Amino acid sequence: MSAGVTQAAEPQSSTNAVLRTLALCDLVESTALVERLGDRAAAELIRKHDRLARTLADRHGGREIDKTDGFMMMFERPVQAVAFALDYQRGLKQLNAAENTQLAARVGIHVGDVVVWDNSPDDVAKGAKPVEVEGLVKPITSRLMSLALPGQILLSNIAYALAHRAQGELGDQLDKLRWRTHGRYRFRGVPDPVPVFEVGEEGFAPLKAPPWSSKAHREVPFWRRPATVVIEALVVAALIATPLILFLRPDPAIAFAERDWVVVGSLHNLTGETVFDDALESALRIGLEQSRYVNVLPDLKVRDTITRMQRDPARTEIDRAVGSEVAIRDGARALILPTIAEIGGRVRITAEVIDPQTQTTVYSETADGIGKESILPSLDTINSRLRVRLGEALATVSNESLPLEKVATKNLDALKAYSLAIGSNARGQFNEALALYNQALAIDPGLASATLRIAIIHASSGRTEQASAAFNKALAEHDRLSTRDVLYAEVMLSTVEKKPDTLSRWAALAKTYPDFFAGTGGFAYVSWRDANRFDDATLKLADASASVRNPSRLPSLHLLGILQLGNDRFEEALRRFSEAESAGFIRTEYHAATLAAQRKAEQAEQVLARSPDASPSENPVVASARTALRTGLLVDRGDVSGARRLLADAGGKAADDSVLAGVFETSQLSLGAEGLAADRKQRIAEIGTQVERAARALKSSSPGNRDASRTRILVLAYLAASLDATALAGSAMASAGEDADSANSLNHKLRTLVAAELDRNAGRTEQAVAKIKPMLDGTEPYVAHVVLMNTYAAANKALPALDEARWLSGHRGRAFAEYSPGNILTAYNIEQSNLALLRGAELALDGDDRKSARASLAEFTKTWPDANVHPAYASRITKLQTALSGDPPP
Fold first, then answer.
1. What's the whole-model pTM score?
2. What are the distances in angstroms from CA 499 to CA 330, 492, 503, 530?
3. What domains lie within the chain, and their CATH numbers?
4. Per-residue model confidence as pLDDT tens digits over 577-598
């Protein structure tokens, strides 16, 4: 690469791309004026005109850029240019009256990105202008000026929209001011039609459409054109066919709709600088991803599609042909191909928007700069223009998008490392991604996007303290994050820190960015995990995140299976789990649980064996889920003693993780309360001992573990209350601390259930039911139906109690799918789904439904054939069999 790219221009010349308004005014027939007045008189008149124009420009904040027959002025805002033009036309009228002349001028106003630089003093001394301005804004402004009639001020649509909105700043001129629209004009050399507007004072301005010329013509319906009127008189048939065909001919531009997708192709690097290869593609993506209007197809998804095209994604360039096929296969509306080249000592970046159906370039955006430091500003310019032409309003782009040098980094080496890290992260190489993100931060310590990605990796790995610190650091540098990333970081931080408003934050993120898969998938996951939601809304969120466009869709497919298991839609759940596992997501716990919920124990064991065990130190989430399921499989066939031994063994292996070990200990204590030989006093004593240990663990636990520690204490309080140990239950509740949890949380609901159990024990069954009923909205924990069944039974209401027993035995999917910290309640839920059969037989008999009693008892004895081994169960079974002994077999 030549010095033109690697080095900046001369130190006295600086180049900037800025959004500005240009006003070009031109004296009509100035040559004829000189011929009529003579050189000396004409020169004197022109000097008076120039003083007038410069005075007015200075008054309205304008800057003179060029001077020929008229002036080119540059303004910060369109309303300033309009105010100048109005005063300028009025000033000409006054000058004509004073000098007895007939000067007339026309003015064109347009707004857009321009490249501005100051010429060096040496160049100025040689005749150069002090300031140079270039960009597409100049020729469009010139075309508008040339189109105008004498005394007319014409504006483009963007200039009109912004100036008209701010017209209140024009003061006393408002009463006489008139705004007119003259339709769309096609200018020679400008590819797209330009809507033309006029502003002027009534009595001064023409306020009529400018005439057509060889350089500009108005875009009007075909049948209103003069030539067509003649043809209409000669050829009647053409009145029907030709005008309709031409009038209805589609515009060559792609009509984007909200939520459309685009594919970003490979960078065509003509400079020879390899540092641009990954960095510029990432920068272009970062800029476009700030859009709420269109979505960028993830790079990993593009690679997956190329693989399905039977090509090597590592070697295949996403060029016009390949990118168009990818777009068609994935339903994307357009392909964007970026190019960087060095032309005449300047770095030029171009982005072509391509229609994948025809592989033709619909339009392109170009920006030039000098040196490497100009690349990100050039990309900013292109991104802003692209986003406007892809459908976003200019005001939205300006208000919601940040410059790339803030969202990303000014340093291309840091951007290169960051781009490589994104690729490693997408491939699941998290340690490599962490190293690359840290490398990017070493080059640019303020690169908040890298800090955010590091925080996400820590959060997904369960390292809550490191994640919290990294999220806080990223948010402290929020001015270098996009609007979406700030919102995402805030949501993730509230999730890690278990804030009460976490769900509402996820809802806001998913609503604002419905195609941001991390948002929709995260909302679905947190809704299941933290709020026990299995409703259609949560299913739709998970399904949206499981879109084929999401390169990380497998966890969402797995979550869909869990949600369908919780709704007892077993066949759908099995299909989802199989699809995720066939694609490489080997987490078989809930797949096995789906089979176990259908009482297919042998198949469940085979599926569970397909994925390796995980030690608590490696992955406590997987370890607790597998232990809970294995325990549940033992409980499901009546081997409660074996289940307790398995939990005791798991607690010993998890000794290094005191929280998880405590969860296993409490889960063990929750089983067999009705069937083991241990007496009530011994069990209460064990609960008391665990409450003391759990309370000490809560005080010393880290913020990330407090939620699980508090859940354990509340489960112990529930177990104590169910044994009528009122004082111990109250003590445990006090140890758990005040209720600062959200109303959706499991801990909040456990507190309510403990209070309901205490009411039941005290004979206040109506108050107990009144506490539980508001909870029954589909998000209630499984154990709520156990408490409600026992409460109705205590109130001698056999029929509603029987309904609850049938709910428990009929919703086994929910018993397996419901989440609790460390899966502390999973084994208990599974046990209760089986005991509900025995309890249902008793309740049906109390309600004189002997047929249901026989059927329920038969199912229980088939499920737990060894239940007679336990004296407590044996006595209940014998009592039922005796009462039903005279009945025919079911």
1. 0.64
2. 38, 10, 9, 11
3. 3-211 (3.30.70.1230), 213-249 (no CATH), 260-397 (3.40.50.10610), 624-883 (1.25.40)
4. 999 888 877 788 899 999 999 9
